[in-house]
Every structure is written in structure tokens, then in C-alpha cells.
């Protein structure tokens, strides 16, 4: 993170208290939907979508137990010590049917999850502070994606902090900053987000 590329804010304790309540209700509903979908396809978890402007509201794929056996050929795209993301090879009827069932369940789940955003998306949407842009890498080589960052400080969960790409550096138009946001310096932001 290049400090000059962002403006830094602290969100008031009152607004944070309300956000906690609202996001807890949303998260409970999300978890029910996720559990139902995971169980319906015999999976053990999911992989969330995270990319340009996507912060994990929808899923990218279902994840299965590493030791789960299938009676058709599969291809792994991702693996951890406990889970693997797979697709069936499309050279069998069973494989094609498996992929179709996974895709249908994923699409149906994602339609529902879009109305129940993840924590970060909820805050970004609530305050309309989404901002994505591209900046030159500090070393001068390559490009970096910049996007709104929001979360709790390391030690104090009574307020939120966020970093929004800075329009003065040629980025997207700066979002309107709500009254419950207090601008802070990079040093304060760094201390809050990195203190142990």
C-alpha cells in the first residue's frame, strides 16, 4: 500500500455499533443459505469470489474434502490441507451431470447471496464508498489494483477504519464521504491496523 494512493478514515463508534447489528443479522441468513447449498452438493465448504470490486459476497466454487472419492474423473483447481476445489472432466455423462448440478446450485445460491452482502460489501454499499482504480507500482514496474479497504483495527473492535483510493492521484472520482467518517493520517491508520 502506497500511502499517497489512499485517504484514510475512522468510522464513528455509533455507526459501527449499528453496522455490527445489521451485519450480524445478514451473516446469520448467509450462513443458513451456505450450509444448505454445501450440504445439497456433498461439499464441505466454498471458495468466495474476490476480484475487481468483488469482496466475497458470492461464491466462486464449492470445496470438497481432500479425501472425497468420485466415480468419475476430476480435475483439481485449488487445494488446501483439508479441502479441494474440483470440476469433473466432461468426458462422461456422470461428470457432465455433476458439473451441471454444481453450476445450477452455485448460480441459485449466488442470486440469493447478492441480496445478503458480505461484511466488506455491506459497508461499502451502505456508505457508497466503492472506488477501484489502477496505479503504477511504487517500483515503477507494473500496475497495481487499488480498491476500498475496510475493517476493524487490531485491538479495538468498537469502530471501523477504511482506506479509499485518492482521487488527487488521478484515480476514480472520490466518493462522497459520510459525516460519520473522520479523516486520519496514514500513520494512525497503520498503527490501528498493525498494532498487536
Would you write up a description of this structure?
The structure is a single chain. This protein is an alpha+beta fold and 196 residues long. It has 2 domains: 3-16 and 120-194, no CATH class; 21-117, no CATH class. It is built from 4 helices and 10 strands, in the order E-H-E-E-E-E-H-H-E-E-E-E-E-H. It has helices at 13-41, 93-113, 119-127, 186-194, and strands at residues 6-11, 45-51, 54-65, 74-79, 83-88, 132-136, 143-147, 149-151, 160-165, 181-184. Strands 8-9-1-10 form a 4-stranded antiparallel beta sheet. Strands 2-3-5-4 form a 4-stranded antiparallel beta sheet. A two-stranded antiparallel sheet has the order 6-7. A hairpin with an 8-residue loop joins strand 8 and strand 9. The longest helix has 29 residues, at 13-41. The chain is elongated and about 60 Å long. It starts with 5 loop residues before the first strand and ends with a helix.
Amino acid at each position: 500500500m502506497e500511502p499517497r494512493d489512499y485517504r484514510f478514515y475512522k468510522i464513528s463508534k455509533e455507526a459501527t455499533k449499528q453496522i455490527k447489528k445489521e451485519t450480524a443479522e445478514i451473516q446469520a441468513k448467509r450462513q443458513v443459505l451456505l450450509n444448505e447449498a454445501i450440504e445439497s452438493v456433498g461439499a464441505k465448504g466454498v471458495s468466495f469470489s474476490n476480484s475487481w470490486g468483488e469482496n466475497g459476497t458470492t461464491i466462486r466454487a464449492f470445496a470438497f474434502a481432500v479425501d472425497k472419492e468420485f466415480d468419475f474423473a476430476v480435475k483439481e483447481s485449488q487445494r488446501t490441507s483439508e479441502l479441494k476445489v474440483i470440476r469433473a472432466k466432461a468426458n462422461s455423462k456422470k461428470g457432465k451431470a455433476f458439473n451441471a448440478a454444481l453450476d445450477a446450485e452455485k448460480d441459485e445460491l449466488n442470486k440469493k447471496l447478492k441480496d445478503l452482502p458480505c461484511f466488506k460489501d455491506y459497508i461499502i454499499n451502505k456508505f457508497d464508498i466503492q472506488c477501484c482504480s489502477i496505479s503504477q507500482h511504487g517500483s515503477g514496474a507494473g500496475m497495481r489494483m487499488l480498491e476500498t479497504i475496510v475493517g476493524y483495527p487490531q485491538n479495538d473492535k468498537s469502530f471501523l477504519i477504511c482506506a479509499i483510493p485518492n482521487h488527487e492521484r488521478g484515480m476514480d472520482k472520490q466518493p462522497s464521504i459520510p459525516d460519520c467518517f473522520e479523516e486520519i493520517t496514514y500513520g494512525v491508520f497503520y498503527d490501528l491496523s498493525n498494532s498487536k
